[in-house]
Amino acid sequence: GMVGGLGLFLYGMQLLSEGLQKSTGDKLPKILELLTNKPIIGVATGTLITSIIQSSSATSVITIGLVNAGLLSLKQAISVIIGANIGTTITAQIVSFRLEKYALPAIGIGFIFNFLSKRRSYKYFGQILLGFGILFLGISIISDTAKPLRNYTPFLKLIENMSNNPLLGIITALIFTAIIQSSSATTALIIAMSIQGIIGIEAAIPLILGANIGTCFTAVIASIGSSITGKRVALSHLFFNIGGVVLFLFFLNKFTYLVSLTSSSIPRQIANAHTLFNVFNAIILLPFINLFVRFIVKILPGEEIVLKKGPIYLNKDIVNTPSIALGQAIKELVRMGEIVESMLSDVMISFIQNDINILKNLYLKEGVVNTLEKEITKYLVLIAQESLSIEQSEILKDLMNITNNIERVGDISEDLAELAEEKINEKLPFSEKALDELKFMFTKVESSFNISISALKNRNIDLAREVALKEDEIDKIEKGLRDSHINRLNQGICYPESGVIYLDVISNLERIGDHANNICLMVIDELSKN
């Protein structure tokens, strides 16, 4: 019964979290990017977002994804994680208010909205309500199932040992939370047992402290295969919580006494202990966050790459000097092109190595590329309003077209990422020959695009002409691969679903070759007039 109740609780949490995330759309990463400039604001942002989506794990994964894409620095990410620790305690606060009697009505109403409504917003509301109801139904089942433990001597002896030996409680909760990857579920289980009078605040607090360390393993798992900064975020989360627990062990009796003053209800005391631990931990670390960041960097050395979402080189104060302003626009275009280069590299690695984690970074980079395309276009429009020479007008027109071509390659990279995701998720088989063919074409197209950006950057007409020559070669490769693949399909030696993906990939790669050629034709056009 306890296992079933815990399963319902976790499933309810998942439904609630998914419903809240769907209702907020793609706003969460944007909010995190915008509101993390100062540590205190980062903490507030992490707290708010985790309170809304009811999942510190989701906040951690989003944060590590933004870090991997270079959109957040280590300092910003640590402040968000600190806030997520505080935000996740809201679940325990809700559970401690004993709302089990509303579980079944919430499930019934949530079902009606989620399954019968046609409007998306109502469906999400229904999913949130359904998750809320299932969560409290799980708590009710856990609590009822725990009743016999009140008279089970071995279990009561274990609880007594945890009261006398806090380290035992910490280790027990740490292992349990690491396995189920939810400190909220561990806290809910503790509260459910306290409802039955099985566990007191003295035994509960060490379990709460252990749960706070155990929840770090979600971030550790999410950081596998991530950038150096992503790994640092996970490590800082672990060190931050372990440090807090070690510190609190010295003042455990005083902390227990303080928590006992917050409420006469044991479930409320447990929830308050969870919140106070994370709030105090944040207050202690924030003044020393720069030292903490340096400490983490020393343990995991390496270069941190931070990718600014907005433009770096576009200065509106110089648009009245078109020659300089156009030069700055070219610099920003090159930067945009280099981000797209990294997207192409990411999608090739993901497709060949079946690594889906890389794609999270690619989708974030696509957002950066779209932002830059809009900003560069707006900047060029401002320049166009100035008095331009005929030559400058031609250059501006070419830059407009180059901006569009680079952005389209970013879009195609995203399309390729979706194909890679389908291949990985559906476990579609690809022969070594097919993968070698795709890798060969990927390499040719990537080289062509990279040279086009280099030609733009260095104002090199010879490089631009080199890409123009490669265009015919890429077209021939695409046609040859398509013909040989269709032959394999006709002979029945190729899996049909894999074949569709294969043909879509080579078609998209050929389009990237076209855009690389377009960029170079404009570079040639511009430079030949000088």
From TrEMBL:
Entries under InterPro entries matching the protein: Na/Pi_transpt, NaPi_cotrn-rel/YqeW-like, PhoU-like_sf, PhoU_dom
N-terminal signal peptide: none
Molecular function terms, GO-annotated: sodium:phosphate symporter activity
GO terms, biological process: sodium-dependent phosphate transport
Gene3D superfamilies the UniProt entry points to: Phosphate transport system protein phou homolog 2, domain 2
UniProt keyword annotations, A-Z: Cell membrane, Membrane, Transmembrane, Transmembrane helix
Recorded GO CC terms: plasma membrane
Record's subcellular location: Cell membrane
Membrane topology according to the record: Multi-pass membrane protein
Primary location recorded for the protein, binned into one broad class: membrane
Tree of life domain: Bacteria
UniProt domain PhoU: residue ranges: 333-419, 441-520
Coiled coil: none
Transmembrane annotation, as ranges: 41-66, 78-96, 102-117, 124-146, 166-192, 204-228, 234-255, 276-297
Name recorded for this polypeptide: Sodium:solute symporter
